[in-house]
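Lab meeting notes turned into a lecture example. A postdoc, R.K., suggested we walk through two folding results consecutively so the class can see how the record format repeats. The first protein's sequence and structure tokens come next.
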Amino acid sequence: MSEKLEKLVEELSTLSVLEAADLVKKLEEKWGVSAAAPVAMAAMAGPAAAAEPVEEKTEFDVVIKDAGAKKIDVIKVIRQLTSLGLGEAKTMAETAGGKVLSAVGKDAAMDAKKKLEEAGASVVVE
């Protein structure tokens, strides 16, 4: 960098944030440009998902993958967690991919997962 540019950089480093923002406005007016244009182009070039804020998931599904060896214990837990009868709970325990709970909060989903896993089932929270 030339000595002239180095001095300019040093001087600009002493500006407060408000002074720097004012400088940007004055340079934009003087030169008829916008400092925001390159930033907008860079944002558009990036992945679309990065441009939008990611919403935190608030509803979860508890899905049974496998009842395991203790199917009777898993059926009991399914009945505790839901209002299903014995036949429906047995069918759910035997069906891989069956949703035990749907659209519940994170705490409820994690609690249900813990209970089902303690009973011997293989469970995922989606």
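The second example is placed directly after the first for contrast:
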Amino acid sequence: MPSKNEDLHGNVPDKSSVALLLIDVINDLEFPGGEKLLEHALPMADRVADLARRARRARVPVIYVNDNFGRWQSNFHTQIEHCLTDDVRGRPVAEKLRPEDKDYFVLKPKHSAFFSTTLDILLDYLGVKTVILAGVAGNICVLFTANDAYMRDFHLVVPADCVASNTEDENRHALDEMARVLKADTRTSAEVDLDALKKDPPCPPNPQGQSRQFAGR
């Protein structure tokens, strides 16, 4: 059935087969283990910031998907202000990754960016076929989001240097799982060709030599 409205009442003017999802990067990190996550999130933030700049230049929508931390009256702009102005652990990451005016945002109540959110609707109006995932934590919210994206038949790109977890081992294991099971392209952000992705979906390596149609089934 054709859509009655193609641009979500003028609020989604972009059309792009590719979108960049920044997961939980605006985060005060004030929770147990947050100090460990900060160690890995800080160097990651520089690479994510560069990828986001490239995405905006290439007219690839940048979508911030942020946890509401159980605050059902929360507001993303309030969360940004909290992370930028209060003396919180995650402030240096938020300073590097603050959104721009034309970026989109979605609040999520649980780990996955898709669970009980408007992300499906937004991606549909944008015409997205490929999602690039970046953010924290690689072995939790990024992984859960990747699982849900895979089940929705999105092509997946998860640059290995643009996700962070509490430990390198946990991060590596999550990336391996996303590459092996979810067929994600996990090459580094420097190897992500946004213009090429907009023309053709990624073709990730198949490490087990299986037919991609039946791999993992």
